[in-house]
């Protein structure tokens, strides 16, 4: 009985992928031509299994095929890691991107995203993670002298029930700075964006404010700030201070005023939060920034 339950659960993970779209993309990119064993359907299930079990290498995936559960799901009794590697190299990124965007569309429909945004401002969280690569095999991915690397910039939609899902991803060389990706990841004026200090860009913050985009970010401790006005806080507020400020030096100062909040994290460390939202309470801003933890859990 347990085996049947596990198999059913595993198949359910793959169920949202549209068979019609999947087969169309396989045909469009000629991915099953001249294939004798490792068809795309089986390969995709292997990738899904590897993700669910946090498998870290192609060799580990190859070893996993000895699992009876996986053999039943993929119709494979063995596969070498070299075969997996060759299959990987044949698949264009457009294939995965198309499947991914269709899954995002399904989530939007299931959660009634467009209708919900009319009553609640959607919250989108942005962060990046660096993925190290072997220098000899990936010299194009400029990073450091001893290794290559790429950086995944991810945008999550955070939902009221605490769930979240990615709706956009950008890959760059690991050496590129985070802040250059805000132009791509911030594209919806009806949303609130939350991101960490790696994306700090005073000039971009001014443009976002002028164009009507809302954000909350973390400010560096050594940032030059001039306070213009202090706001009163409720007695039971978790926020330490709430001010209207301008940021930057006299040579590179923001044109707009912003709001600076000082809060304490779970370890008692002080965080300086910067936002262009003046319509929310200080505690509401602090709670919005706390939701950024969802993307840390995702990575």
TrEMBL record:
SUPFAM superfamilies: Ribonuclease H-like (SSF53098). Coiled coil: none annotated. GO terms for molecular function: DNA binding; transposase activity. Residues 122-299 form the Transposase IS4-like domain. It comes from the Bacteria. The keyword DNA-binding applies. InterPro entries: DUF4372 (IPR025399), RNaseH-like_sf (IPR012337), Transpos_IS4 (IPR047952), Transposase_11 (IPR002559). Keywords: DNA recombination, DNA-binding, Transposition. Pfam families: DDE_Tnp_1 (PF01609), DUF4372 (PF14294). Residues 6-64 form the DUF4372 domain. Belongs to the transposase 11 family. PANTHER family: TRANSPOSASE INSL FOR INSERTION SEQUENCE ELEMENT IS186A-RELATED. This is Transposase.
């Amino acid at each position: 009985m347990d085996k049947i339950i596990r198999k059913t659960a595993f198949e359910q993970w793959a169920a949202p992928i549209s068979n019609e779209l999947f087969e169309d993309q396989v045909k469009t990119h000629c991915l099953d031509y001249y294939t004798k064993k490792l068809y795309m359907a089986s390969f995709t299930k292997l990738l899904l299994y590897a993700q669910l079990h946090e498998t870290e290498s192609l060799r580990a995936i190859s070893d996993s095929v000895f699992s009876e559960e996986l053999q039943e799901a993929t119709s494979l009794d063995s596969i070498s890691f070299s075969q997996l590697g060759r299959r990987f190299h044949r698949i264009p990124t457009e294939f995965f991107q198309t499947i991914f965007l269709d899954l995002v569309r399904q989530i939007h429909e299931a959660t009634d995203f467009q209708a919900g945004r009319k009553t609640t401002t959607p919250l989108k969280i942005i962060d990046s993670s660096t993925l190290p690569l072997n220098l000899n095999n990936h010299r194009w991915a400029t990073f450091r002298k001893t290794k290559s690397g790429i950086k995944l910039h991810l945008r999550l939609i955070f939902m009221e029930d605490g769930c979240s899902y990615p709706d956009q991803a950008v890959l760059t060389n690991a050496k590129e700075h985070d802040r250059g990706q805000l132009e791509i990841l911030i594209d919806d004026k009806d949303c609130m964006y939350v991101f960490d200090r790696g994306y700090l860009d005073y000039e971009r913050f001014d443009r976002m404010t002028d164009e009507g985009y809302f954000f909350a970010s973390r400010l560096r401790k050594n940032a030059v700030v001039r306070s213009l006005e202090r706001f009163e806080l409720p007695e039971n507020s978790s926020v330490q201070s709430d001010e209207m400020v301008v940021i930057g030096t006299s040579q590179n100062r923001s044109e707009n005023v912003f709001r600076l909040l000082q809060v304490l994290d779970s370890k008692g460390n002080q965080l300086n939060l910067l936002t262009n939202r003046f319509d929310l309470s200080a505690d509401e801003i602090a709670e919005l920034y706390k939701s950024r933890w969802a993307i840390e859990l995702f990575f």
